Amino acid sequence: MAHTPEALRELTEISTQIEAAVVLDREGTVVASTLDDERAGQLAGPALELLRAAEETRPEGESLVQLDVALRDGVVFLVADGDRVITATTGPEPTAGLVFYDLKRLACARAAARRSPRLPQKPRAKRAPAKKAPAARTRKKADDAGT
Fold first, then answer.
1. Which uninterrupted H or E stretch holds 19?
2. What is the C-alpha radius of gyration for the chain, rounded to an integer number of angstroms?
3. 0.85 cut: is pTM over it?
4. 35: three-class secondary structure by DSSP
5. Axis-axis angle for helices 96-115, 6-14 (nearest 10)
6. Tens digit of pLDDT for each residue in 91-147?
7. What is the C-alpha to C-alpha distance for residues 60 and 64, in angstroms, rounded to an integer?
């Protein structure tokens, strides 16, 4: 079942050009999506086919990093991130550089999360309670005590 992690939710809020985004593995399994499961699968399948076709035509030794395909009603963007693929759709004539930047930023965040497991936070050192200073005697009290 596809779900929408916080990073994808933020991606579509920050990048006003991105209408939908799907993260899938190289087998075509949807890992996360801003769409319902059926629509995510409808985007993931053709995106993976497109990626495989592009990878077959690349020069030997070069890896595919990004790909965009302009359609009549919008653009499909793909960013390859190791074993994950991030695909997004936009309306017509988006600012491609900004869309790729946002998708790569998401890919970097995902990679960092995979490499850096959360470390337990150190407990905060407890501060000793402040010592109360002895009450100062005023001259009047001293005078009163002496009489």
1. strand 18-25
2. 29
3. no
4. coil
5. 160
6. 999 999 999 999 998 887 766 565 544 444 444 445 555 555 555 555 555 555 555
7. 11
Burial annotation 72-92 (CB, 10 A radius, 16+ → b, else e)? eebbbbbbbbeebbbbbbbee
Query: SS3 for 21?
Result: strand
State the DSSP string of 37-96. Answer: HHHHHHHHHHHHHHHHHHHHHSPTTPPP-EEEEE-SS-EEEEEEETTEEEEEEE-SS--H
pLDDT band at 75 (very low <50, low <70, confident <90, very high): very high
CA atoms within 13 A on the CB side of 105: 13
Backbone angles phi, psi at 65, to 5 degrees: -110, -45
Residue 100 is which amino acid?
A: F
In angstroms, the CA 34 to CA 19 distance is 9
| Rounded Cα–Cα distance for residues 68 and 72 (Å) | 13
What pLDDT, on a 0 to 100 scale, did the predictor assign at position 121? 46
